[in-house]
Specification:
The chain is mainly α. The two termini are 24 Å apart. The chain is built from 6 helices and 4 strands. The chain is elongated, with a radius of gyration of 18 Å. Helices cover 51% and strands 8% of the residues. The strands form 2 sheets. The chain has a two-stranded antiparallel ribbon with strand order 1-2. A two-stranded antiparallel sheet has the order 3-4.
Length: 144
C-alpha cells in the first residue's frame, strides 16, 4: 500500500490545527512547524477546505481552523479527501475488478486489503493521535 505525500501532509496539517483549535494557523506556520513544502501544503489545504475538513478566513486575523471536531475526523476522511479511492489497481477502483481462470480469487484479496486498511484508518481520529502524542510526552514515560 502506498501512502501519498498529499495524505501525509494533509494529516500533519490537520493535527497542527487540532492542536491549536482556538486560533487560526497560516499555511506558512503549518509548513514551518511540520517541515513540509509550503506550495504543496497550500494546494493540499485547498483540497481539505473543499472537503469541509478545514475552514478558512481571509485577512490579518485569518488563517485555517479545523472544519469539524478532532474526535470525528478520521484518517480515512483525510485520505479520501486528498486521494479519493483508498486502494486502486492501475488507477482504477476495485469495485468491478474481475479476473478469469486461475486469478479468479485475486480481486477478493485486494478488496479485503482495502476493507482492512479502511477499518484501521476509520478507527484513528485526529484527537486520538493528539492524545497518544500527549501521553508519550509525559514525564517519566519513554517513547517506544
Amino acid at each position: 500500500m502506498h501512502i501519498s505525500a498529499k495524505a501525509d501532509y494533509a494529516t500533519r496539517a490537520l493535527l497542527e490545527l487540532a492542536r491549536e483549535p482556538d486560533r487560526p494557523l497560516t499555511c506558512e506556520a503549518i509548513a514551518s512547524s511540520q517541515g513540509v513544502p509550503f506550495r504543496f501544503l497550500k494546494s493540499v489545504v485547498g483540497e481539505l477546505r473543499r472537503a469541509g475538513l478545514v475552514r478558512s478566513q481571509r485577512g490579518c486575523e485569518g488563517g485555517y481552523w479545523l472544519g469539524g471536531r478532532a474526535e470525528e475526523i478520521t484518517l480515512l476522511d483525510v485520505t479520501r479527501a486528498v486521494d479519493g479511492e483508498l486502494l486502486t489497481l492501475r488507477g482504477e477502483p476495485l469495485d468491478g475488478l474481475d479476473y478469469p481462470g486461475a486469478a479468479t480469487g485475486l480481486p477478493d484479496v485486494y478488496r479485503r486489503i482495502e476493507a482492512d486498511a479502511s477499518a484501521v484508518l476509520r478507527g484513528v481520529t485526529l484527537a486520538s493521535l493528539l492524545s497518544s502524542d500527549a501521553r508519550e510526552r509525559q514525564p517519566g514515560r519513554s517513547a517506544a
